[in-house]
Amino acid sequence: MEILFFLPGSSLPDEKAFHIPNLDKMIHVFLFGAFVSLWCYYFYRREKSAQVLKIIFFWIFFLAVFNGVLVEYIQLYFIPGRSFDKGDIIADMSGASLAYGLSNVKLLRTNI
Questions:
Q1: Residue 108: pLDDT above 90?
Q2: Exposed, middle or buried: residue 69 (CB in 10 Å: 0-12, 13-18, 19+)?
Q3: C or N terminus of the chain, fewer CB within 10 Å?
Q4: At what angle do helices 86-110 and 23-44 cross, to 10 degrees?
Q5: Distance CA 94, CA 11 (A)
Q6: Contact 76, 16 (CB under 8 A)
Q7: Among residues 86, 80, 92, which one has the least CA distance to residue 33?
């Protein structure tokens, strides 16, 4: 996932080629949602207590959001042809939040 975020701007295809508005944001939501979902599922399958899983799920969410913000700053200062985009951070947080919420709902339903 990180490789795509660190490619120089000249290596990326022209956005006009896709003709889908906000495709970039949808990809961010999907990638960060998948990241959080898959890691939460991994730890869920390890059969830990609900209290421990809540803490682990939160840290996975936090690391995903931190990663999304960090990537934007790295793009701004270190990757030629890339820029900082608050919309990408919001999309990253949205995907991570959705997956985090769904993971906690799943956890609550199985421990009732």
A1: no
A2: middle
A3: C
A4: 30
A5: 27
A6: no
A7: 92
Q: Which amino acid is at 65?
A: V
Please give the Cα distance from 16 to 19 (Å, whole number). Answer: 6
* Contact by Cβ (8 Å): 100, 60: yes
Residue 106's CB is within 10 A of a number of other CB atoms, namely 16
Please state the pTM of the whole predicted model: 0.83
Give pLDDT, residue 82: 80
Greatest Cα-to-Cα distance within the chain, rounded to the nearest angstrom:
52
Tokens of 86: 């608050």
Instruction: Give alpha helix (H) positions in the chain.
Output: 2-5, 23-44, 50-78, 86-110
What residues have CB less than 8 Å from 64, skipping those under 6 apart?
Answer: 32, 35, 36, 92, 96
Both tokens assigned to 2: 């990180």
The token pair that represents 77 in the structure block: 């200062």
